[in-house]
TrEMBL record:
It comes from uncultured Thermomicrobiales bacterium. The lineage of its organism: Bacteria, Pseudomonadati, Thermomicrobiota, Thermomicrobia, Thermomicrobiales. Its cofactor is (6R)-5,10-methylene-5,6,7,8-tetrahydrofolate; FAD. Binds 1 FAD per subunit. Transmembrane segments: none annotated. FAD binds at residues 233, 245-249, 276, 279-286, 376-378. It catalyses: cyclobutadipyrimidine (in DNA) = 2 pyrimidine residues (in DNA). Its EC number is 4.1.99.3. This is Deoxyribodipyrimidine photo-lyase. Belongs to the DNA photolyase family. Residues 15-144 form the Photolyase/cryptochrome alpha/beta domain.
Length: 483
């Protein structure tokens, strides 16, 4: 495989092959596992709870909990097939090398990862293994197409989505691989159980309703989605109250499902299927942006906006975080995320636009807040989404297009059901006022039990004024950036 990320040493020797699971917590369509079995070797499955990830830059109880439970489910799946999952805690360059030596492995196989931390980690692990004469090989499995496979005529990675997608669609995905029936493991493999949550950092997930972890649950979600939701996806996906999207993002993030298999299941004609495939392409797109331009984790892709005059008002930030901005569509979305560990895509766009444009708060602050709550929190997709919404990214919406939260609410939640679901204090507000409750006459406010300023806040900024200020600030940054 191309990439030059880590030492590649494809299966030399005759000893067992370690399959080190990371964001590929599945047995179906797992190229590394299939390759190890095809080589006719014993397989030693391993998962490492890596403290740098658990306590590092993006710690998140919901994600840690979902991961830990999915690891547990993977262990059960492996046991049913004759093997088991060895579990270790610590620095991968130490524990992977120790484990590989312990089972007498000749090679370690992984599913290739593209994030900056993962690439550095894999280089260190490959070097530690090489020091013991053990090989290391990274197989595909996290994306539909490898970043090196989708490049322009000049051999460059794309930074604009449409040409990227055209090229992506022309490439044939690899075949979907079946789950192995049995997995022969070394006789003395010491398996384990995932450590307690508090040993991993968080003591409990913060969201109340996280989807069931594990590959089997994810596969049931995929089956239900293909049977019931997919065909109407193009129409339903932007209606906030409809639950018209797949809700597979945590499964794709943790690799409970392979994107190649999800794509294959979404094959065929119809606008719903085509639109859904295009969303899977966005996932590959942002991952290859992070791969080719790792600097996006520290700065805007578009250097013109590196010195934007953000206001960063702490009171505004608190109101946004707590869902108290006075704009119902924004507040409902923020509360949805805290409750579910998930937010609808349209709502992510609206809330990110509001924070960066209306409140002129640096996008990285919002990016971090999302990462603290989302079970699907994904460095590439989240950073890409935030930079897009803030108009500072690769393929960003132009800064002069600023979402009007009232109109967005009226368009994407016309009956106000989404707002009422997440903001019970607005439950009895008539639909004509639901997205601008501050326009309710005072007697209506009293009648429906929603007095503005007492039961629900007045808008913390006025839309037209905030828009003018944002246009001014962004224009100045763009002008300076051009000089
Ligand atoms: C500010 C912002 C932050 C975001 N943060 C994340 C994140 O941390 N993790 C994440 O997975 N997605 C993120 N997204 C993308 C998108 O909002 C979620 O993937 C989607 O809401 C997940 O719900 P779903 O599975 O029902 O999506 P569906 O609409 O059913 O889409 C199917 C799959 O396609 C992928 N996908 C869809 N849209 C995008 C996109 N714009 N970029 C990349 N992949 C996409 C996801 O894997 C998703 O599960 C973000 C978007 C924005 C605007």
């Amino acid at each position: 495989m191309a990439g030059g990320d880590a030492q590649h040493d494809d299966g030399r020797g005759t000893g067992p092959i370690v399959i080190w699971f990371r964001r590929d917590l599945r047995l179906h369509d797992h190229p590394a596992l299939t390759a190890a079995l095809a080589a006719g070797r014993l397989v030693a499955p391993l998962f490492v709870f890596d403290e740098a990830l658990l306590r590092g830059r993006w710690p998140a109880p919901n994600r840690v909990w979902f991961m830990r439970e999915s690891v547990r489910a993977l262990g059960e799946g492996l046991r049913e097939r004759g093997g088991g999952l060895a579990i270790r805690v610590g620095q991968p360059e130490v524990v992977v090398a120790e484990f590989a030596a312990e089972v007498g492995a000749s090679t370690v196989y992984v599913t290739r990862d593209y994030a900056p931390y993962a690439r550095g980690r894999d280089r260190r692990v490959a070097a530690a293994l090489a020091g013991r004469g053990i090989g290391f090989a990274a197989k595909r499995g996290l994306l539909v197409h490898e970043p090196e496979g989708i490049v322009s005529a000049e051999g460059q990675g794309y930074t604009v989505f449409s040409p990227y997608r055209r090229c992506w669609e022309l490439r044939r995905p690899r075949a979907v691989l079946p789950a192995p029936g049995t997995i022969p493991t070394p006789p003395r493999l010491r398996v384990g159980t995932p450590p307690a949550l508090d040993a991993l950092g968080p003591t409990a997930p913060t969201a109340r309703e996280i989807p069931e972890p594990g590959e089997a649950a994810a596969r049931s979600r995929l089956d239900a989605w293909v049977a019931d939701g997919l065909a109407d996806y193009d129409e339903a996906r932007d209606q906030l109250a409809d639950d018209g999207t797949s809700r597979l993002s945590q499964d794709l993030h943790w690799g409970l499902l392979s994107p190649v298999e999800v794509l294959a299941r979404a094959g065929g004609g119809g606008a719903g299927r085509a639109t859904f495939r295009s969303e899977l392409c966005w996932r590959d797109f942002y991952t290859q942006i992070l791969f080719h331009h790792p600097r996006v984790t520290r700065e805007p892709f578009n250097a013109a906006y590196a010195r934007l005059d953000w206001r960063n008002d702490p009171d505004h930030l608190t109101a946004w975080r707590e869902g108290r901005t006075g704009y119902p569509i924004v507040d409902a979305a923020m509360r949805q995320m805290v409750t579910l560990g998930w937010m609808h895509n349209r709502a992510r766009m609206i809330t990110a636009s509001f924070l960066t444009k209306h409140l002129l708060t640096h996008y990285a602050v919002g990016e971090e807040h999302f990462m603290a709550h989302l079970t699907d929190g994904d460095l590439a997709a989240n950073n890409g989404g935030w930079q897009w919404a803030a108009s500072v990214g690769t393929d960003a919406q132009p800064y002069f297009r600023i979402f009007n939260p009232t109109l967005q609410g009226q368009r994407h939640d016309p009956a106000g059901d989404y707002v009422r679901r997440w903001l019970p204090e607005l439950a009895r507000v008539p639909t004509r006022y639901i997205h601008e409750p501050w326009t309710m006459p005072e007697e209506v406010q009293r009648e429906v039990g929603c007095v503005i300023g007492a039961d629900y806040p007045a808008p913390i900024v006025e839309h037209a004024e905030a828009r003018r200020l944002a246009l001014d600030v962004f224009k100045r940054a763009a002008d300076v950036g051009r000089e």
